Amino acid sequence: MKTVIINFFSPLILVFFLFAPLYAQEGGPVSKYTLDDCVEIAMERSSDILTAKEGIKLAKGVVFEKWSSILSVNAEAKYTYTGLIPETTSASGLSSGLSTPLDEPDDQYDFGITASLTLFSGGKVIWGLNIAHLQLQVAEEQYRIAVNEAVYDTKVAFYAILLAKKKIEMRLEELDLLTRNLEKTEDKYRNGLVPKYDVMRIEVEAINARTSLIEAKNDLTVAYEDLKKLLDIDLGKPIEIEGELKYYEREADLKLLLTAAETESPERNIAGLNERIADRNVDIAIGDFFPAVKAFANYDHSATGWEKISFNEPDWEFTAGVVVEIPITDLVLSMAKKKQANAEYKVAELKLKDTKRDMEYSIRSAYYDLVESKEIIKLQEYNIGLSEENLKTAELRYENGVGTLLELLDARLAVTEAKLNYLTALFNHEKSLSQIRKLLGREGTTN
Predict the structure, then answer these.
(1) CA quadruple 310, 311, 317, 323: dihedral positive or negative?
(2) pTM for this one?
(3) Which are the contacts of 210, defined by CB distance < 8 A and separation ≥ 6?
(4) Which helix (H) or strand (E) holds 381?
(5) To pair with 299 at 20 to 30 A between CA atoms, which of 29, 122, 168, 205?
(6) What's the pLDDT tens digit per position in 278-313?
C-alpha cells in the first residue's frame, strides 16, 4: 500500500518541487531574465557604480579648479557714498561737532579689472596639476572596480540559482530511484525473500532523500532572493532566470595572467597611482622652500559722480608688476611638511608592494581553483557514467537475489555523490573564471 501511495504522489512531488520556488516568491506575473539581462540591471542600479561615477565628476572638477587657479582674472565695481554728514545734537541741545558738511558732496565710483599669473612656485603648481590628473585616474580605476564587483557578484548569484536548480533535478532523480527500489523491496518482502529490515532501511533513505530535496528547494528560493536583493528588484516580485550550467573549455596561462595583472588590475593601478601622488606631494613640500613669483596687472577707473563715469581709454589707468614672496618664518613649517610627505610616500611604497603581492596571490589562488574544477569536471563526467552503470548492475543483482540491499544503496549513493561533485565543480569553474576576470578588471567588458 505504501508503494502505491508513493508511486501516485511521485509525479505530483516532481511538479511541486520544480515550480514551488516560483510560488514561494509570492504572486504576480513572472519576469524572466538571462545573464545578460541581470548584468545590465546591475550596471544601471548598483549604488557603488553610481557613486563611482560621481567620484569621476568630482575629480574632473578638481582638475578644472587647478587649471583655473594658475591665471586669476577678476572684475570689480565699487560704490562709496560721500554725501553730507548728518548733524547730531546732544540731549542738552548742544551740537556734537560732527555736522561740518563736505564742500562738494558727491558719490565715488570705482571700476577695475585685475589679473594675476603665477610665474614660479617651486613646481607646486605643476605638481598640483599632476596630482589632480592622477586623482582623476584613481577615480576611473575605482569605477572599474565598482563595475567588476557588480558584474562578478551578479554572475555568482546567477550561477548559484542554476546550481540550485540542478540539485533539485538530481534530488528528484534520487527520490524516484528510491521509490522504485522500495517497490521492489516490498515485493520481495511479501514473497519472503528479504527481511522487514530492508523495507525499513529503504524507507529511511527515501525520507532522507525528501529532506535533501526540501533543502535544495529552499536553497533555490534563497538564491532567488539573493539575486533580487543584489539587483534591487522587489523581493515580492516572482522572477525566473533562463540559462544552463554547462562546461565550456577555456584555456588559461598563469604566467600570462600574472603579466596582465601588472597593467590591467584596477587595485594594482590604484596603488601605483597613489604612490605617484605621494611622490608629487614630496615635490610640493620641497617647493615650499623656494620663493613664489607672480605677475599682476590692474586696469581701473575712478569717478566722482555718476556723470563723470567714462569708458574711454584715456580715463582708465593701467598698472602691472611682479611680486616675489620669499618664505622666512614658514621654513620650520615647510620642513615639517616635507618630513610628513616623505613618510606618506614610504607608506604608499609599502602599500604598492603589498598590493602587488596580494594580487599575485589572488591570481594564483583563482587559477588553481580553476584548474582544480576543470580536473574534477572531467573526472566526474567519467565517474557519473561509471557509477550509473554500476547502479544498473547492482539493481539487476538485487532483483535476481544475488546482490544485497547494502550494495544497492551504496551504488545509489555513489551516483548521487558523483553528480553532486560534478555540479559543484561546474559552479566553481564559472566562479573562478569570473574571479580572474574581476581581478584583471575585465568583467563588464568584451575582453
Answers:
(1) positive
(2) 0.80
(3) 175
(4) helix 331-399
(5) 122
(6) 999 999 888 888 888 888 888 887 777 666 677 776
User: 109: which strand partners?
Assistant: 79, 303
Q: Which domains does the chain have, with CATH numbers?
A: 2-82+105-439 (1.20.1600.10)
> What are the tens digits of pLDDT across the range 9-63?
454 444 444 445 544 455 567 889 999 999 999 999 999 999 999 999 999 999 9
Q: Which residues contact 235 (CB under 8 A, 6 or more apart)?
A: 225, 228, 229
Q: Residue 95: beta bridge partners?
A: 89
| Cα–Cα distance for residue pair 151/220, rounded to 1 Å | 20
DSSP string over 297-313: EEEEEEEESGGG---SG
pLDDT digits (tens, 9 = 90+) for 108-133: 878 888 888 888 888 888 899 999 99
How far, in Å, CA of 320 to CA of 299, rounded? 9
Considering just the CA atoms, what is the radius of gyration of the chain in Å?
40
Q: Which three cell numbers stand for residue 225?
A: 532572493
Q: Which of 312, 334, 314 is nearest to 325 (CA)?
A: 334
CA dihedral 173, 179, 183, 186 (to 10 degrees): 130
Residue given cell 569536471 in the structure block: 377
Strand-strand pairing, 31-33 and 239-241: parallel
Distance between CA atoms of residues 99 and 171, nearest Å: 105
Contact residues for 195 (Cβ-Cβ < 8 A; gap 6+): 189
What mean pLDDT, rounded, does the chain reach?
86
Supply 40's cell numbers.
545590465
Question: Where are the alpha helices (H) located in 110-192, listed in sequence order?
Answer: 124-190
Exposed e or buried b for every residue in 329-355, given b needs 16+ CB within 10 A? eeeeebeebbeebeebbeebeebbeeb
Contacts of 103 (CB under 8 A, 6+ apart): none
Residue carrying the nine cell digits 610628513: 340
| One-letter amino acid for residue 18 of the chain | L
> If 0-12 CB within 10 Å is exposed, 13-18 middle and 19+ buried, where does residue 22 land?
middle
Dist CA 243 CA 122 (whole Å): 61
